[in-house]
């Protein structure tokens, strides 16, 4: 079975995250308008999270490690930046 490379993983992840955000925003907007929804808020986040886990499982190990290292580095930088803003 072929696995995703790092770029393919990133591309799918961006698409899924954008869809989740749009779907959740649409749910909130339709609830605000008094409409009944088939899905509860948070449903798309839950399903999307499971989908992203599957994408990670189908990503080449070396590309996944590089991506995870990069994401950890970015999270660390963001945390440092937020701490500096608070002080």
General shape = flat
Low-confidence stretches at least 5 residues in length (pLDDT < 50)? none
**Average pLDDT rating:** 86
User: How far is the first residue's CA from the last residue's CA?
Assistant: 50 Å
Task: Report the biggest beta sheet as strand number plus sense, adding barrel if it closes.
Answer: none
Work out the radius of gyration. 17 Å
| Topology as a string of helices (H) and strands (E) | HHH
Total helical elements? 3
Percent range of helical residues:
over 70%
β-strand number: 0
Q: What is the percentage of strand-forming residues?
A: under 5%
Q: Please state the structural category.
A: mainly alpha
Please provide a written account of the structure.
The protein is mainly α and 87 residues long. It is built from three helices and no strands. The chain has helices at 6-32, 43-57, 61-86. The model has no long low-confidence stretch (mean pLDDT 86).
Q: Short description, anyone?
A:
By secondary structure, the chain is mostly helical.
List the helices and strands and how they pair.
Layout (H helix, E strand, L loop, with lengths): L5 H27 L10 H15 L3 H26 L1
Features:
87 residues, mainly alpha, 3 helices, 78% helix, flat
């Amino acid at each position: 079975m072929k696995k995703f490379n790092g770029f393919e993983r990133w591309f799918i992840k961006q698409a899924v995250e954008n869809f989740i955000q749009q779907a959740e925003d649409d749910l909130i907007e339709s609830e605000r308008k008094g409409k009944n929804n088939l899905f509860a808020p948070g449903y798309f986040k839950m399903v999307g999270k499971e989908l992203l886990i599957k994408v990670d499982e189908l990503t080449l190990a070396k590309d996944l490690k590089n991506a995870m290292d990069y994401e950890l580095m970015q999270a660390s930088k963001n945390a440092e930046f937020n701490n500096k803003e608070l002080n």
